[in-house]
Amino acid sequence: MRLRALLASLAILAAGLAVLSLATDGFRAFTTETARRIEVREQPRPVPDVLLQTADGQHLRLHALRGRWLLVDFIYTRCPTLCTAQGSEFARLQDRLAGPIARRRITLLSISFDPDNDDPARLADYQQRFGDRGVGWIAARPADATGLGQLRHIFGVTAVPDGMGGFVHNAAIAVVDPGGRLVAILDWDDPGAAASYVEARLAS
């Protein structure tokens, strides 16, 4: 009886591991993300000087934001899930970080990985929908496909069409230091940790 129960338990465990392996691409989804975060922390990456078009229709080069800390997320405006939460969190970060934002020491930056659909009007609507306070949060799209590819590579952005007009994508809050280097990748659903990260460095 005990042997039968043991074999049944092993069979259930094996089935569970098989499902988990399939869902995480052979377990690499966990290890790759962890390795990416460690690599960025230990070997900061220079961010390319990509040309962006902002929600007000203006053009902005990323290097024009040097000298301040950037909290960066990647979104698409039609997203019904992760990006909805991210938009609300960035609006709350505007409140928490209002002081250093006003002193131009921190900027929040949402970059669309769906620039063909996310024109300036849609980017502006995205910010307004989530309560943009009007200062310190830039929503933008890369001006060309080359720039989008460079950003996706440096920031490790994965976005796969879901067959229904949207994307399955990863999410994070990336931290770029005043020298223009990607120095940290933090959990998308813990904006407080991102705020604490930059606040600690501004205070040091």
Could you write a compact summary of the structure shown?
The protein has helices at residues 2-23, 28-42, 82-96, 98-102, 120-129, 145-155, 191-203, and strands at 45-46, 51-54, 59-61, 69-75, 106-112, 137-142, 159-161, 167-169, 173-176, 181-186. The protein contains seven helices and ten strands.
Distance between the termini: 64 Å
Give the strand order, joined by hyphens, for the main sheet.
1-10-9-4-5-6-2-3
Number of helices: 7
CATH level-3 fold name of the largest domain: Glutaredoxin
CATH-scheme architecture of the largest domain = 3-Layer(aba) Sandwich
**Main beta-sheet strand count, sense and barrel state:** 8 strands, mixed
Shape type: globular
Which residues sit in consecutive blocks of at least 5 with pLDDT less than 50?
A: 5-29
Supply the helix-strand structural class. Answer: alpha+beta
The CATH class of the largest domain turns out to be: Alpha Beta
How many strand units? 10
> What is the name of the CATH superfamily of the largest domain?
Glutaredoxin
Instruction: Tell me what portion of residues adopts beta-strand conformation.
Output: 15-25%
Radius of gyration: 20 Å
- Would you tell me the overall average pLDDT? 87
Helix and strand element order: HHEEEEHHEHEHEEEEH
